[in-house]
Design goal:
567 residues; alpha/beta; Anaerobic Ribonucleotide-triphosphate Reductase Large Chain; nine-stranded mixed beta sheet; three-stranded antiparallel beta sheet; globular; binds uridine-5'-diphosphate
């Protein structure tokens, strides 16, 4: 296999099986065989005579060619005793002690198995409201989030992954102002990303510079009115300070709910790309677009084959998965959601000689994602013919459209934080973050990387020198660096050279052809203003995004990625 050094490091640290003494007992190739065989076993459910070994071989090649990789829990747990294969879960949090602490317990079980959990805290009665059984007063959503946070801290996902949570609160919850500032201090609720769920009513009030109502969830009473603009400003100010909270457009997310009969969507998974119903889980996987270029053209045939086999793989995962709870198994099998996305998009653009922040790049994104979405639907329809539709299909919006599918959703753009390192390509749909950078991996040693395609380009075009590379490594960027030709400065544009507007436009193009949502960070330079943040939010709303996360460079002491090398 053609694995880069960093890929090997990550695989050894977190993916390859070890014995009781902690010694490695598999090679990367053996890991991929373990996964391929475990996932291919599902074929037996539909055809007793299925050639499982043959399909396992196809899955093996799909992964070892690095054309497609499933999400981390599948790579780590398939064919092993834990057997939990999904990255994304959403759990309900009801307004009673039993329900709250059930959710704490369930999330601990999920974290242990490598999954991330999302919760809406919007059903909890507000801080200071009455508790009838005790005569006391309620402590409210934010104080309960701290309980979930502490439980996550203790579990730490068995060393495979840090526990990740998403906490959502509706903008019309009486505790919304406390929630917006809940992560003001970076040391609080560290195992959570938080998002404010903005409603259409809110967006309308904002446009008209009017007020909107806060509603006590336990009684349905209107308890107060707030100026939408003031709340919006407060969200933007906090996001400007340290990237939290994010926002999601909850009514728009529910417009995309293909099975409204099963309930309303209230939350997403931790990184925001996967809205789910309470108790639903979803497994993700990503096509490596850097591998889909032949010469200077997109290899559509190869892409189609890859997408179709990947959909089959992800559908199989649902059958062989070991679910942490019966409720989750039932709900997941009703909708059979899968989330196929992409990684290596920025690398693909470079291979096609197209800068990320250009109209041409938007057109490529539009064509590629539309193609993937269409082919994934074709594949899901082909599976439905043999395996049947997902069981809630008859009451779904797909039935109204007359499209028989095996899966209620097929596409999601994941961050691919770890699997893109294994594939050795740019993550998700993000631009290259830096041409040289330092990466923190859990509590292990930092990894230093210099971008390979850039180095190759410099050699091929005669501008390579060690001195120049050292120069580039100082900031991670080539923009304005003498000695780097102008076309190369344009082509190797990095996340911080790209204006927030272009980041949002790219997210919106991918969202257009994605059933679920799109993971994307709107990177801003340190000098960006609160007004810039607000403009990004409004643009994202206008262009049809389902949510937005901004991050201003340097606004947190500890960043996952640092542009440039640090001593
Ligand atoms: N996730 C998690 N813990 C982590 C990283 C990710 O629980 O430390 C979950 C979370 O739901 C996230 C999803 O996995 O939204 C996908 O993340 P990513 O694509 O980065 O995962 P990968 O498969 O690359 O590890």
């Amino acid at each position: 296999m053609n694995l880069k050094e960093n890929a090997l490091k990550v695989l050894e640290a977190r993916y390859l099986a070890r014995n009781e003494k902690g010694e490695l007992i598999e090679t990367p190739e053996e890991m991929f065989w373990r996964v391929a065989r475990a996932i291919a076993l599902a074929e037996k459910n539909y055809d007793e005579k299925a050639d499982v070994e043959q399909i396992a071989k196809e899955f093996y090649t799909l992964m070892t060619e690095l054309d497609f990789l499933p999400n981390t829990p599948t790579l780590v747990n398939a064919g092993r005793p834990l057997g939990q294969l999904s990255a994304c879960f959403v759990l309900p949090v009801g307004d009673s002690m039993e329900e709250i602490f059930d959710a704490v317990k369930f999330s601990a079980l999920i974290h242990k198995s490598g999954g991330g959990t999302g919760f809406s805290f919007s059903r909890l009665r507000s801080k200071g409201s009455r508790v009838r059984s005790t005569g006391g007063v309620a402590s409210g959503p934010v104080s309960f989030m701290k309980v979930f946070n502490a439980a996550t801290e203790a579990v730490k996902q068995g060393g495979v992954r840090r526990g990740a949570n998403m906490g959502v609160l509706r903008c019309d919850h009486p505790d919304i102002l406390e929630f917006i500032t809940a992560k003001e201090d970076n040391k609080d609720i560290t195992n959570f990303n938080i998002s404010v769920a903005l409603t259409e009513k809110f967006m309308k009030a904002l446009e008209e510079d009017g007020e909107y109502e806060l509603i006590e969830p336990s009684t349905g009473e209107i308890v107060k009115k707030l100026k939408a603009r003031e709340v919006f400003d407060k969200i933007a100010q906090n996001a400007w300070r340290n990237g939290e909270p994010g926002i999601i457009f909850i009514d728009r997310i529910n417009e995309g709910n293909m099975v409204p009969d099963l309930g309303q969507i209230e939350s997403t998974n931790p990184c925001g790309e996967q809205p789910l119903l309470p108790y639903e889980s979803c497994n993700l996987g990503s096509v490596n677009l850097a591998n889909m270029v032949k010469g200077q053209e997109i290899d559509w045939e190869h892409l189609e084959k890859t997408v179709k086999l990947a959909v089959r793989f992800l559908d199989n995962v649902i059958d062989v998965n070991h679910y942490p709870l019966k409720e989750i198994e039932n709900m997941t099998k009703k909708t059979r959601k899968i989330g196929l996305g992409v990684m290596g998009f920025a690398d693909m653009l470079i291979k096609l000689n197209v800068p990320y922040d250009s109209e041409e790049a938007l057109q490529i994104a539009d064509k590629v994602m539309e193609f993937i979405n269409d082919k994934s639907k074709e594949a899901s329809a082909e599976l439905a013919k043999i395996r049947g539709t997902f069981s809630a299909w008859e009451k779904s919006l797909w039935a109204k459209r007359g499209l028989k599918l095996r899966n209620a959703t097929t596409t999601t753009i994941a961050p691919t934080g770890s699997i893109s390192i294994i594939a050795g390509v740019s993550s998700g749909i993000e631009p290259i973050f830096a041409l040289a950078f330092k990466r923190h991996i859990l509590d292990r040693k930092d990894i230093v990387e210099v971008h390979e395609i850039f180095e190759q380009h410099a050699k091929d075009n005669g501008y390579y020198s060690e001195k120049l590379m050292e120069e580039v490594a100082k900031t991670g960027r080539v923009s304005g660096v003498t000695g780097v030709p102008k076309e190369a400065q344009r082509l190797f544009v990095t996340a911080l050279d790209i204006s927030p507007e272009w980041h949002v436009r790219m997210q919106a193009v991918f969202q257009k052809h994605t059933d679920n949502a799109v993971s994307k960070t709107i990177n801003m330079p340190n000098s960006a203003t609160v007004k810039d943040v607000k403009e990004s939010y409004l643009l994202a709303y206008k262009l049809g995004c389902k949510g937005l996360t901004v991050y201003r460079d340097g606004s947190r002491e500890e960043q996952v990625l640092n542009a440039g090398l640090t001593e």
